[in-house]
Amino acid sequence: MYQRVLMKHHVLIVVTLTLLLGVPAGVFAQGDSATEKEVRDALEKYRTALTQHDAAALKQIWADNYTFINGAGEIVTKEQRLTNLDSRATSLDTITLGGDVNVRVYGADAAVATSRVTIKGKYSGKAVNGDYQSMSVWVKTSGGWQLVANQITPITGKQ
Description:
CATH architecture: Roll
Number of domains: 1
Shape: globular
Helix content: 25-40%
Structural class: alpha+beta
Number of helices: 4
CATH class: Alpha Beta
Distance between the termini: 55 Å
CATH topology: Nuclear Transport Factor 2, Chain: A
Order of helices and strands: HEHHEEHEEEEE
Largest sheet: 8 strands, mixed
Number of strands: 8
Mean pLDDT: 83
């Protein structure tokens, strides 16, 4: 009985290692790279488009199935964000990225960026003025980097 359990355990270890070693290295998060710089540039282009109310740029930046979770926890689609932008329900005066921007690249066509941001303006008709943690998920398409999802969470309490 003991040998049977031991054999199953060894087989499980061998199968697990085989699967892990067979996965291309590019699947795991990578450090500094040209791709990371591209994503950082896309973040800046996004920040600029939001503060300049540039709907044409945002239509290209946001993927068709884009999802945003705002600071109130509401889920907002690309179409809803564009409507809010057009009606000025969303009007961001300033967005300041913190010095803690972290970009993790997965392969050559996916990345997750996190940072602290300070925002002044309105989101979905609600005044915003404060510090948030931001997370954005980017995918590289034939047209360049597109934002597929992002979320901001208000920072409350002590830092």
